[in-house]
Specification:
about 130 residues, globular
């Protein structure tokens, strides 16, 4: 079973912890995203050994990686994907990269997510 993912929102002035810097600098092969805006700092990533304790209780998400890379001229792919989940009352947290999109769903709703997406015609070639 793939490791759970965490989603953490921190105050905008929170400094990056040593653990976070290590994840950003060293290519561990694990998914890790840090986004800072004028309002917040958001961290999203796979559980890893040494994860800060305050993130452990937030490891409640499963990740569905969309097949990529995708052309940037494509429109509505993420919207169509998440609309199916919305219709099934499944919350999402999406992270986009240059190549593709990652859609996180609550761990307890992963099976239901896959089921409704398959029913809608989405094909699963692998899971992240």
């Amino acid at each position: 079973m793939p490791p759970p993912f965490f989603v953490v929102q921190l105050p905008v002035d929170t400094p990056f912890s040593e653990s976070v810097v290590e994840r950003l600098v060293n290519n561990s092969g694990l998914f890790f995203s840090a986004t800072r805006t004028s309002e917040e700092l958001s961290l999203v990533g796979e559980w890893y050994d040494g994860i800060p304790r305050e993130y452990e209780d937030r490891c409640t998400w499963a990740c569905i990686k969309m097949q990529g890379p995708m052309e940037h001229s494509l429109t509505g792919v993420l919207a169509a994907f998440t609309a199916t989940l919305k219709a099934a009352n499944i919350p999402v947290f999406a992270v986009s990269t240059w190549n593709t999109d990652y859609v996180l769903v609550p761990m307890e709703k992963k099976s239901a997510s896959v089921d409704v997406l398959r029913q809608d015609g989405w094909i699963f070639v692998g899971e992240h």
